[in-house]
Design brief:
Number of helices: 14
Helix content: over 70%
Shape: globular
Largest sheet: none
Strand content: under 5%
Length: 300
Amino acid sequence: MPPPDPPRELPLVRALYSVGRFHIVAIAALAALTFGWAFTGRYLWWAPAVCALDWFLVNLLNRVVDLREDAANGIEGTEFAARHQGLIRALFALLLSGSLALSHWLAPALTPWRLGYHVLGLAYNVRLLPGGRRLKELYLLKNTASDAGMLITCFGYPLALAGGLGALRADFSVAGLACFALFFFLFELSYEVVYDLRDVKGDEAEGVKTFAVVHGAAGAGRIASGLMLGSLLVAGGGAAGGLLPARLACMAAAPLAQLVLVQRWLARGVGKRDCVRLTWLGAGLLALYHGWVALGLPGS
């Protein structure tokens, strides 16, 4: 019998797109831009720029430390990451050290937040914890660590650049900020659980205790749905209680859209491309939001 055909090489641009996880980079940067404006009334352009770079860097590191898991899950670009892992690691170190020095010179208020984010990213990806473990392998902490990274970059970065809590708009209080943070935390955590439904095979093989591995697909689906409903209740309660102005309460459209889509996916199983589509949907909603604001439509 003739030998099997070798795996088809991905086009370079497509491989780079997959390895960099630019869907995550895009939604994180748009969230940092959007929340900065919604919280302070200012477009703080440094925040999305640095946010995009930092998520790109953490994604690069994640791709080269998760090669076996990604291969088991059939994640696109894994062969490219394996072949060039030495170059990717060097690029990560160069960009991280150089950007930390540059951003500290230009915007020193970002430095503690960036250091905190990258320490979290290293603990998530690299075996730095007692027993040679990493945050990614620990039940519940795996998902909440990624969620915390979003809060640091999408809330902390713009607020640090704006000058702290004193820069909040007159119609938005610290209590309102806490309410919106809870809404976002629950929503983002629901997305993390949905994402893990795609990766059950590789997570089981590597001993990563996600909700999907521990509770099964059905249990994880119920947890994700409950988190989405919880985020909707927090947004509704915050709006009714006067904590969230319309420009923030309207963002409940995102978990609502996700809830509708995910219910359909759970019935047939979450596919490899579903989470990418879901992420681009969220990025599209954030871009649409800025178009709404630019037109001065109600609630903006």
